[in-house]
Amino acid sequence: MQAILAAVAAHGVLVTALHALPQHYALPPSTLSPSSSSPARPFHATHVSEALAVSFPGAAISATAPKPLTAVVATRKAVAVLKGSTRVEGVVTLAQEKDGRTTVNVRVIGLTPGPHGFHLHEYGDTTKGCMSTGPHFNPNKKTHGAPGDKIRHAGDLGNIIANADGVAEATIVDSQIPLTGPNAVVGRAFVVHELEDDLGKGGHELSLTTGNAGGRLACGVGVEANVRNVGQIVPEEAP
Ligand SMILES: [Cu+2]
Ligand SMILES: [Zn+2]
Asked: What's the predicted TM-score (pTM) here?
């Protein structure tokens, strides 16, 4: 009796998996091509369909049917932990949407209340603190500007604003800071500054290079969270 119940349960799970599969196949073809996955990875899409084709006929299902393979990693993610020589610190989490835009969630503590320039700088080199992270990331050789400007550095993310407790929280959605490719944030540094970024409009001699945002209080290098695993089908975790 128990064996029958187990077989029924396994059957139900597999039917669920089959119903769920088609929407997961709406992935870009490149993410499912054999070349995008090393042979060692066990849950490649073709393997999934073969496994289901073989095991689906009801009579053949045993109680030891494999776990359903329906969870797909869909969003690229990266993270940066900001530290400095002061008590300013923070965390930046990044998620790249399907349409290519990146959502940046920032939380920084220990700031003076008010606006502080926030940028992606070119290098992930922090051997000399935040100073060795180089200038604003600027692959298109533009002048400094606001995030919404046509003419801006790719790394120009504007200001984050600290409250009376010195905490700044912001969500920025931007199309110039992808998580993959030659302009990826991975390996570059996020920097939070002492002063407000004038967004290129302050008339100071530094306005068109740095926004005259003053010293670098804290910085952190973007590192990948799941960047390489997007598009993979993985076993659903047990409830
Ligand atoms: Cu900066
Ligand atoms: Zn800039």
From this structure: 0.69
